Amino acid sequence: MSGYLLLEDGTSYKGNLNGEDSEGEIVFYTGMTGYQEVLTDPSYQNQIIVFTYPLIGNYGINAVDFESERPQVKGAVFYECCEHFSHYEAAYSVKEYLGKWNIPYISHVDTRSIVKQIRKNGTMKAQLSADCNEIEQSKSITKKLPETQKGITALGEGSIHVALLDFGFKKSILQSFLKRNCKVTIIPYTELGQLAHFQPDAVVLSNGPGDPKELETYLPAIKKIADSYPTLGICLGHQLIALAYGGDTMKLPFGHRGANHPVVDQKKGKVFMTSQNHSYVVTSAHHKEFGVRFINVNDQSVEGMFHQTLPILSVQFHPEAHPGPAESEYIFDEFLEMVLNTRREMVYA
Ligand SMILES: NC(=O)CC[C@H](N)C(=O)O
């Protein structure tokens, strides 16, 4: 069926629409692969994703690469959505998967032109629609709090107990700790008051959707947690740590979403490629208790911080990868080493 992608700035694109009308914030993802992880990453809640690579769906959808239990996006924009997939692990096509969950997508639209428009006018409200109406200008996208999926859940038997504060966590973050011999207790951020009761050795603040400032009411509790436990913040978690300690965040014009964002680790003097998915960044006017350790090579934005005296580390990129390069996985090892050192210090204090 023919249909339209309508942007808030008045631009429209005609293509083949599958599914019902939908509305969200339009953003673009530049990785050549990883569509299954992107579609199911909770950080993309309330967004319509333009995939810049022109062939999506070639290797189908499998049982292992989900980042959560369902697609999280409001819609997808492809040039070609391949229905005849080929991969030994593939169970069904992207079309079947999105159809099952009533997530619409449009294909055979000029994705290069759409991306140029977003780069020019910034991420904005968009609609997938059977009709070519204009988007209501007055109604801007309502900011929503992250939706979490599970209640408090304990997994793994390891010797280090990590509390994963869930703002919409990616399964790969959980797995990064389980495979490093950790016990993990997932705690939805709405229940963060319960955290102390579990007596964790460390706390991880997860990734998640939306503007970190929407979570303002949780900041004092987050600061108290980071003051008390070795803490790692990933993406939204990193932004929340900055805000909790008096720093600030701002919105980038069109964000960083892809699998080849170069970052420099100033401590190691090393540049590596990272997987990224964010609109907001910590501004360099962060609180002076923190130092900036990681910097984006393309635009010099802050990619990660460390606390000068406390065991707190935070990264804007995704060390768990999925999709994308795993070159920064050492962040997990370094963090767990930090947790063990803190434990040793407590024993000998
Ligand atoms: N992946 C994330 O955690 C994204 C963080 C935040 N929602 C942003 O867009 O900047």
From TrEMBL:
It is an enzyme of class 6 (ligase). InterPro entries: Anth_synth/Amidotransfase, CarbamoylP_synth_ssu, CarbamoylP_synth_ssu_N, CarbP_synth_ssu_N_sf, Class_I_gatase-like, CPSase_GATase1, GATASE. GO terms for biological process: 'de novo' pyrimidine nucleobase biosynthetic process; 'de novo' UMP biosynthetic process; glutamine metabolic process; L-arginine biosynthetic process. Residues 1-129 form the Carbamoyl-phosphate synthase small subunit N-terminal domain. GO terms for molecular function: ATP binding; carbamoyl-phosphate synthase (glutamine-hydrolyzing) activity. The keyword Ligase applies. Pathway: Amino-acid biosynthesis; L-arginine biosynthesis; carbamoyl phosphate from bicarbonate: step 1/1; Pyrimidine metabolism; UMP biosynthesis via de novo pathway; (S)-dihydroorotate from bicarbonate: step 1/3. It catalyses: hydrogencarbonate + L-glutamine + 2 ATP + H2O = carbamoyl phosphate + L-glutamate + 2 ADP + phosphate + 2 H(+); L-glutamine + H2O = L-glutamate + NH4(+). Small subunit of the glutamine-dependent carbamoyl phosphate synthetase (CPSase). CPSase catalyzes the formation of carbamoyl phosphate from the ammonia moiety of glutamine, carbonate, and phosphate donated by ATP, constituting the first step of 2 biosynthetic pathways, one leading to arginine and/or urea and the other to pyrimidine nucleotides. The small subunit (glutamine amidotransferase) binds and cleaves glutamine to supply the large subunit with the substrate ammonia. Composed of two chains; the small (or glutamine) chain promotes the hydrolysis of glutamine to ammonia, which is used by the large (or ammonia) chain to synthesize carbamoyl phosphate. Tetramer of heterodimers (alpha,beta)4. This is Carbamoyl phosphate synthase small chain.
